[in-house]
Amino acid sequence: MVFSSVLFLFIFMPVTIGIYFILPKPAKNTWLFIMSFIFYAWGGMAYALLVLFSTIVNYITGLLMDKQEGSKRKICLAAGVAYNLFILFFFKYFNFVVENIKFVLGPAGNNINPPLIPLPIGISFFTFQIMSYIIDLYRKEIKVQKNFINLGLYILLFPQLIAGPIVRYIDVEEKISKRSVDLDSFSHGLKRFILGLGKKVIIANAMGEWADIAFNDISRLSTPMAWLGIAAYTLQIFFDFSAYSDMAIGLGEIFGFHFLENFNYPYGAVTIQDFWRKWHMSLTTWFRDYLYIPLGGNRKGAVRTYINNFIVFFMTGLWHGAAWNFILWGLFHGFFQIVEKTLFGKYIRKLPAVLGHIYTMLIVMVGWVLFRADTLGDALKYCHYMFSYNIKDINIFFSVLDNWKIFVLVLAVLFSVPFAAKINTLPVIQKHTTAKKYADMVLYTMLFIISIMFVSGSSFNPFIYFRF
């Protein structure tokens, strides 16, 4: 079940919210836990039971760890982390490893036929959340959660279960047991959800249609179509991913949770380092706190810092998917991170903002080719068409141009940078607060109605985070 579906919008969401607010406080967490389990089970009961079992394992691990000190406490941590990484490896990376072993063995590996293991939706998100709980508990940064329903709610909470942001237990520890919702926070959460829904079904899906045309038949790409396709995918993945974060943050606020932001206009960045401070911030923070800093961060000299950067970005790529394309995408970004930490970074940061922005977006877009292409060979072909003059099959480029998508493209570009936010801070807008309040009500109502029309009238509604 996804947020941008008729089932979620007209049945699951209103039923969950409606009953939640009429229940007494002691029953609210139980209700959210049950509905979150149903939400995930909609995609497959077997995997919902897997998440439930992982919750039980980590709940017991936490209880045992809380009673131990010294080496026994470390054993509990090691066992918990090992279990979570094994689950992630088995379901997400086992087939990938076996296929690579078969490739290395050549003909001798033809007899190796592992079973096809379907990927549980959002496994990378909820695994990282679970591990943050037991790691922070080991560090004594949080208290053990003795109520199973409360811990289960943290892990299974449906707003951010399958597409993030990655929520650390330390950030919601207090809200799990004690939270309240007033009319203003409910209204703000609802508006945030509607904004995300509109970004997803109006902008991301439209750009996704262009991207699919380009990437699904690379052999017929012209240079203009290659650039249109990657520009469209660049906008699709931002508006799709940030839309799910908006909807998750909005839904969380409706129930009294306050999740941290996940995006901060990353396409306005002027360096790759700046980009990663603004893109998928919950993942960046997770790797910083649980991998980069424990490896030594930048405290052990330049060479060790570069190695740590490569490790982090190797893992960042691998986290996104079990394929060499994702790994190379991560290392590609890691390389430019290191370049910017060397002497070259001094000159890059001195570039005029416009040139810095062009440099950053060019690297990001080439990186997205690696991310979107089905194979490394396809990615190399795609880049070849981008940077060579080829007008063969250019009729495809002209045939896909239509007024609606061009209009959406302009909107996407404008709203991928702080255009609307700056307008909202203009003195003339801030001065008329009452008029702004009613204007917001009208605009969000219209956006919701238009979004529902798109949800109901279109069969193109991809969920691009399935591989995560």
TrEMBL record:
For this UniProt entry, the molecular function terms from Gene Ontology, in alphabetical order, are:
acyltransferase activity
Specify the protein's topology with respect to the membrane.
Answer: Multi-pass membrane protein
Q: Where is the protein localized?
A: Cell membrane
UniProtKB keywords? Acyltransferase, Cell membrane, Membrane, Transferase, Transmembrane, Transmembrane helix
Ranges that cross the membrane: 7-24, 30-54, 75-96, 116-135, 147-170, 310-332, 353-371, 404-421, 442-466
Which Gene Ontology cellular-component terms appear in the entry? Answer: plasma membrane
Report the InterPro entries cross-referenced here. Ac/AlaTfrase_AlgI/DltB, AlgI, MB_O-acyltransferase, MBOAT_fam
One BP term from GO: alginic acid biosynthetic process
Q: Does the keyword Transmembrane helix apply?
A: yes
- Xref: Pfam families: MBOAT (PF03062)
| Protein family according to the UniProt entry | Belongs to the membrane-bound acyltransferase family.
Supply the PANTHER family for this chain: ACYLTRANSFERASE, PROTEIN-CYSTEINE N-PALMITOYLTRANSFERASE RASP
Supply the name of the protein: MBOAT family protein
Q: Which organism is it from?
A: Johnsonella ignava ATCC 51276
